[in-house]
Amino acid sequence: MTLALLVPGCKKDELEKALAEANEKLSATQRDLDSERQKNKQLKAENDELSQRIAQLDAEIKVLEAQLDDLAREAGVTKAELEELRKEKAKRLAELQVYRDLFGQLQALVDAGTIQVEFRKGMLVVKLSSAILFDSGKTDLKGEGQTALADLAKALKTVKGRDFLVSGHTDNVPIKTARFKSNWELSTARAVEVVKYLIEVGMGADHLGAAGFGENDPAADNSTEEGRAQNRRIEIVLLPKLGDIPGMKEMLMGKKKS
After folding, report:
1. Average pLDDT of the chain, as a whole number
2. Rounded CA gap, 96 and 113, in Å?
3. Domain boundaries, the chain
4. Model-level pTM greater than 0.85?
5. Which CATH code for domain 92-238?
6. For 147, what's the count of Cα atoms within 13 Å in the CB-facing half-sphere?
7. Hey, is 186 helix, strand or coil?
8. SS3 labels along 10-21
């Protein structure tokens, strides 16, 4: 009789334990479901907020466009002229981005002191000291000069569809050798040598030019040795891309702009 009573009791405990586990799982599932519902509710609220912000910005842009049109009318500017101004602004912003991207690529070389970068005469100019590239009075590139130019070419090649001018510069101390009658010849020969090496390391020949300025475009005062050292240099200039200037073709062809 005692054994008969114990068996149903054990079964009862097992059933109660299983029921408790099932209830716990059900509660956990319910909590997860509530959590997911809360997340979905939050996401929906965020999406609604973003949609409202986009709609708000769209409305603000339309208001600004209307204000621009009103200002244009008050100033006597036609819509076509206003559109040209907007296009010109977009071109300038794109040009600025090219400069920013290129400078970012050159930053490591600037930090290492291999090159200097500056804006001069409205153009981005990369400067390398002749001391890194050439021995005095020579045009053969030194090993360290080749390394510097190869590193520089990697950055310059990231600028697509643009032209570069490599220019040679000297100090004002006259040179007269069997090969070079003046600083003009020396500076030009050095620029050509740099162009040839840039092509060798992968830059497109159709986007490179060479020029020699001799002592005629100094970067520093030639009255000191330090100044003369700064003037003995190679510059690589990113030529500006001005695009189509309104009315230029008509002016050159002798036609009136319609």
Report:
1. 82
2. 24
3. 13-77, 92-238
4. no
5. 3.30.1330.60
6. 7
7. helix
8. HHHHHHHHHHHH
